[in-house]
Amino acid sequence: MADLKVTHLTAEYRRGLLGTNVARPRISWRLASGRQGTAQTAYRIQTASGEGNFDAPLWDSGRRESDASVLVPYDGPGLSSCTRYSYRVKAWDNFGRESEWSEPSWWETAFYDSKEWKAQWITPSSEFIDPQAEPAFLLRKPFTLTGAEIASARIYATAAGVYELYLNGKKVGDDELAPGWTSYRRRHAYQTYDVSAQLRKGDNAIGVMVANGWYKGRLGWENKSDHYGVRRAVLVQLHVRYADGTEEIMGSDPTWGASTGAIRFSEIYDGETYDARMERNGWSEPGFDDSSWGVAERLELPLAHLVAQENVSTRVTQTLKPQAVIVTPNGDTLLDMGQNMVGRIRFRVTAPEGTVIKLTHAEVLDKEGNFYMGNIRTAKQSVTYIAKGEGTETYAPHFTFQGFRYVKVEGYPDQERGLPPEAFAGEVIHSDMERTGAFECSDEMVNQLQRNIVWGQRGNFLDVPTDCPQRDERLGWTGDAQVFAGTALFNYNGGPFFTKWLRDLKADQLADGQVPFVVPNILRGYSSAAWGDAATVIPWALYTSLGDKRILAEQYDSMKGWVDFIRSQGDAEHIWDTGFHFGDWLALDAKEGNYMGATPNHMVTAAYYALSARIVRDAAGVLGFEEDAAYYGALAERIAAAYRDEFITPNGRVAARTQTAHVLALFFGLAEPRHRARIARDLNEMIVENDYHLTTGFVGTPYLCFALSDNGYHETAVKLLLQKTYPSWLYSVSKGATTIWEHWDGIKPDGSFWSDDMNSFNHYAYGAVGEWMYRKIAGLSPDAEYPGYKKIRIEPDFAGGRLSHARATYESMYGKVEAGWAFRGGRIEVEAVVPANAAASILLRGADADEVRASVKDEGIWSITQEAEGVRVETGSGRYAFAFARSDSSYRTYSPDMRLSEIVQWDTAKRVLDRHAPGFTGRLNHFAGLPLEAAANSPMGPAISIEQYEAIARELSRIRE
């Protein structure tokens, strides 16, 4: 028994899953062990109905000889609707230990059949309230419970619109903007709420408040509303179970009362108007006088496509305090939240009745320091509150969200004397995903970049992966989502989030395989390369990152459909040369006035065609579809051959001299092996000639540093990351950005703006570099052959940069994974943490196997072998530390805080030093003890510049090779 424990039980990624219609929920767990090299050899799962009477389990797997501990499907009798199931797990390991039973966890089902809905869709009667009225609708129903003691109670609810549910005067749950945004015509989510503690014997009342939201509200930049329907409605069903085993069900119907209240206007883009004088105090409590209210009427909306909520809920996840109160040159009074955030402002005020307070939200100030709304386009992003004049009043909008850092405040009492910042708070709202990843290194600007990437994800992962959260757009652009998916899945567990969104993608996909530009689809556009490829790229990313095989099975027809659609286009079977494509969107090599980069669209379409065909091949292999695997594998090879014939000369020259064209040939594996070195060299030269600046757009940027690092130019990739002048990732950081920008020069060096038309300051696509930072700098990656971090690749590349340390952590399904390295003295230290029931392959670049063998004695180490790049260490679980001297191959490695005596071997390199830095060696005694940057900038005269050092390091490396 000893110290082997089973912990962290989840069903469908969640602890305590309330309300699911998954027929066979998948169970995951972790092993906790104090012994290195721990691996599970067998498990046993028990499931019981209710709170967990495991003496008579519903299902007992028995002991199963298996190392599986992630997403193991329930395999017992069919589940019933509206039922709680408890489960527990025990495990055996390779040391012969048997754990105790874990603490039990649970999931609870919702409805498996739409016929179980007894409630009716209802909306206020048109005889009493205009269906197109702007105020939010209020619907209420008093009821009396006369049965025995209440054992449990659940409400199942949704809306055609967005809603809040109230019971006996209090809001139910902490969800925001429920039911979220799905492809409503085919898939409409409902929520499950545990209201056992809010009900009471005797008189009760339910209230629902509903506004337009995504269902009926204005979406897109064409000023169109009513995308899914012209009337708001709600659907509510209450189930009460009594201690004596009886049950009572009641649902929404035309007997409900209807009115409007204090919310006079509410739209996603435009904000909310709240007149506190029109509050209906007690409207969701029993005993409220609703004699002046109208009644509801039934609305014929379908029940068949209702699905239990799949995504995690949207919630308030953090509260920020204003960092400053600013009065602009134009005289506006602003709150500076210190962070470009997404959510809302909550404030309190004591004011006379009728006082009008208006908040307007924006991301940036202009170069004069004035409030700037130009990039918001037609979105109003304003909130208006009208005070009722009764003591201290508190308010935050209900059915809208804003993207902002700055808030212009108008009408607050005595505002001219200064706003009280303590009266305001910013509530951050997004899908409440589990945070899984963290990255940090020795460069604080890069650390800020990582924070910006995370904040960009938080702001734009609000039930759908939106492009931006502030202007009149906020749509689920497929291209943005697919390029960022790898980074997203490091930062957060996106299993439920992407599962829900991919089901919407499949629902909105056309019968011939075309994929819309945005999901859910409210536009007319379909099937651009790199955008439609979200259908293949994201399911595969979920599989490799989380080990989710079921998502491949669910989406497989969609994945095939996309590739088959491409193949059906045009006359050239293997080069997609028809239709509209966004190309290398927003690349800097675009022609004046054009958003599309200079890389020919057909190069982009063919590259992604090959990528998606390979992904379908690999997915078919995982799922056991051997014929499909062979078919799509052969197709991918023919596409790559056609690409080479069309776009790469016999001498290995890429047809278009753009960075992105070379990146695609390298990263997508389209170039023949004999040509890769030349293409990589050409790419490197283009970047060096451009003074280490990039010119790539949405297609090239995510893969640029990978293409360099994987082909011998990691040093250049690091230089690109650390570049601070425009265009670069750190340029926006140098301008004070706290999220990722849509344009490399959203704010120009002189403080002016790129454009009003399309200039979001919270647009995550270029944050895709985060995946490279995790994988290449820290060196942390899942192994696709053992997905979900069952086997981990830890291969940090510390060569060629000015970083002295880096570290990444990731909360995998197996437990925490860590990879870190640092230069200390003349040695490199590498640390790794591998969770129980997982393994790792660790590459120590530049190390000597004999030195490594002599320094480690850990029982979890399986093998140590010398490779061309360094030492490969294969391990089981545990915490490992390695320290080794730099070998010849690591001479390109340096850090600004290293001492010169640590990085140059003077006796063997004097000739090289004299050629590159004449006279330097004569001053060795003074400079050898100084850090590199200090020596380069010494008041006694320059010792050696970083550029000189790099030249020396390259030549020393060549000599030793």
From TrEMBL:
It is an enzyme of class 3 (hydrolase). Keywords: Hydrolase. This is alpha-L-rhamnosidase. Its EC number is 3.2.1.40. Residues 149-318 form the Bacterial alpha-L-rhamnosidase N-terminal domain. The keyword Hydrolase applies. GO terms for molecular function: alpha-L-rhamnosidase activity. It comes from Paenibacillus arenilitoris. Residues 328-430 form the Alpha-L-rhamnosidase concanavalin-like domain. Pfam families: Bac_rhamnosid (PF05592), Bac_rhamnosid6H (PF17389), Bac_rhamnosid_C (PF17390), Bac_rhamnosid_N (PF08531), Ig_Rha78A_N (PF25788). One of its GO terms (biological process) is carbohydrate metabolic process. Residues 786-852 form the Alpha-L-rhamnosidase C-terminal domain. It catalyses: Hydrolysis of terminal non-reducing alpha-L-rhamnose residues in alpha-L-rhamnosides. Residues 434-777 form the Alpha-L-rhamnosidase six-hairpin glycosidase domain.
